[in-house]
Amino acid sequence: MKRSLITPRRAAICGIVGPAVFAGGLVVLTAAQYGFMIGIGWQPLTDPAGAWPSGLALGPYGALQDASFVISGVLLIVFAIGLHRGMVRGSMSGPVLLGISGAAMALLAFETDPIDRTGPLPSRHHPRRLVRRVRGRTAACTFLSPTPNG
């Protein structure tokens, strides 16, 4: 019998370590590149997600942010594989979605465009933002609602 390299136990460890690596990398790189992030238009109090965390990849330690994205993504994929192998019964959708999320996370390592802010930030009540919110919540309700058996 061939023994697999990805066991449910190892995969579970990857599922724990992956987010910790990513969060730790974000904290360290944000502190190390704070001045750079402010310089490219990041506003931590009024628009915290505007240039963060992808903007960290543009700074002097950008390769470390790219590595953080790739390592975290690969560890999430390993976790998804182990979750699938450890399941006795159940749907494949959970492990598949986790695997897709891990691949997307690893792909975030590709070069990001610089932030170019020349005007004021859009308000929270901007019409386009409202339309996106309503459309996203409607789609979520549609796909997550239970269907009748019949």
Distance between the termini: 43 Å
Element-level helix/strand string: HHHHH
Show unreliable segments: 121-126
Shape: elongated
Percentage beta strand: under 5%
Structural class: mainly alpha
How many β strands by DSSP?
0
In round numbers, the mean pLDDT is 77
How many domains, in number, for the residues? 1
Count the helices. How many? 5
Radius of gyration: 19 Å
* Helix share, percent: 55-70%
Biggest sheet overview: none
Give the helices and strands, then pairings.
Elements: H1 8-32, H2 34-39, H3 62-86, H4 93-107, H5 127-144
Helix pairs in contact: 1-3, 3-4
Characterization of the model:
Helix 3 runs antiparallel to helix 4. This protein has one domain. The chain is mainly α. The radius of gyration is 19 Å and the shape is elongated. It contains five helices and no strands.
What structural keywords apply?
elongated, mainly alpha, 0% strand, 5 helices, 150 residues
